[in-house]
Amino acid sequence: MLIVEQISEKNNILSDYVRCPFCKRGRLCDKPTHIKVKTDVGRLIRDSSETSSVIVKCPNCGQKFNIHMSK
Question: What is the pTM of this model?
């Protein structure tokens, strides 16, 4: 299960962003600075019943990507 939670302005979370691995220009999403992200282009889509994921679309090139949550 994925939980979507609003961040209030009071919580100053240090964050940066994830660039599109395809065009290298689009901003896919923001993330806390202490979280590591691996981007990969051209991999097979994992079985959605086995993992939790969110689909994001690059605003620059329009490519779609799955964001998989791992432990």
Answer: 0.70
Q: Are 22 and 28 in contact (CB under 8 A)?
A: no
Per-residue pLDDT 10s for the chain (71 aa) are: 778 888 877 767 889 999 999 999 999 999 999 988 888 776 655 565 666 788 899 999 999 998 877 66
Beta-strand (E) ranges in the chain?
15-19, 27-32, 53-57, 64-68
Q: Measured between alpha carbons, how far is 17 from 11 in angstroms, rounded to an integer? A: 17
Say if residues 14 and 28 touch (Cβ distance below 8 Å): no
Tell the burial category of 65 from Cβ atoms under 10 Å away from its Cβ (0-12, 13-18, 19+): buried
